[in-house]
Amino acid sequence: MRDKYMLERLVIREETPADHYAAELAAKRAFWNLHRPGCDEHYLIHLLRDDPAYIPALSRVAELDGSIVGGIWYSEARVEGEDQITPVLTFGPLCVDPSVQKKGAGSALLAHTMSLARQAGHKAIIIYGEPDYYPRFGFRPCEVYGITTPQGRNFPAFMGAELRPGALAGVRGKFYETETFEKLPPEAVDEYDRRFPQMPKLRLPGQWNT
Ligand SMILES: CC(C)(COP(=O)(O)OP(=O)(O)OC[C@H]1O[C@@H](n2cnc3c(N)ncnc32)[C@H](O)[C@@H]1OP(=O)(O)O)[C@@H](O)C(=O)NCCC(=O)NCCS
Fold it and tell me: Which CATH fold topology does 4-182 show?
């Protein structure tokens, strides 16, 4: 439920180097043991910032009473069709610290940055995300657009949102994001994770079967 009192105090702004640790910690806390034992999203953010595909102009952190409580990180992606390549956006992660989840911060980060992306003239955003969360922001399964994963697959978590009506009309093909999303070897993640407060890795019901 939206927490009007909290949202009035929430500042959504560009990330500065001084925010890096707190933003990554919020990501760690949000994703830890969510999809698998532990998580790699804090390391992903760390790598993304140095990726040429990263888009700081669209990425934002959420600050509450002087503390970073969440963020969203955008990067360039593309849909490769038979005879054309269409640039699109992706984001990931989007996270809100568990201490302030479900009060509207995630929605605020998403609505704010989708508006920035629209104003900047971007066509569409394609993501892998929670299929129950994103439809309220206009995301639909990529299947309806004729867009598949690089492996030619479709599933509910693979979704796209047009930033202008019809922006994905006629755009068919395979979705590719920057390789950084795939370059997260567990040993490197564990090594990077040492700089954060240690939390137990647990196998919990509802995690992906990986
Ligand atoms: C998902 C996340 C970013 C949402 O941010 P938030 O600030 O907690 O959510 P909001 O307050 O903006 O939205 C709340 C609404 O979304 C729903 N919601 C929140 N997380 C959800 C989820 N994972 N799946 C489905 N619905 C979700 C809430 O039930 C609530 O619904 P309501 O408005 O009908 O009551 C945040 O909960 C989070 O960081 N979760 C862990 C990491 C994660 O899953 N990130 C997204 C990966 S794709």
Answer: Aminopeptidase (3.40.630)
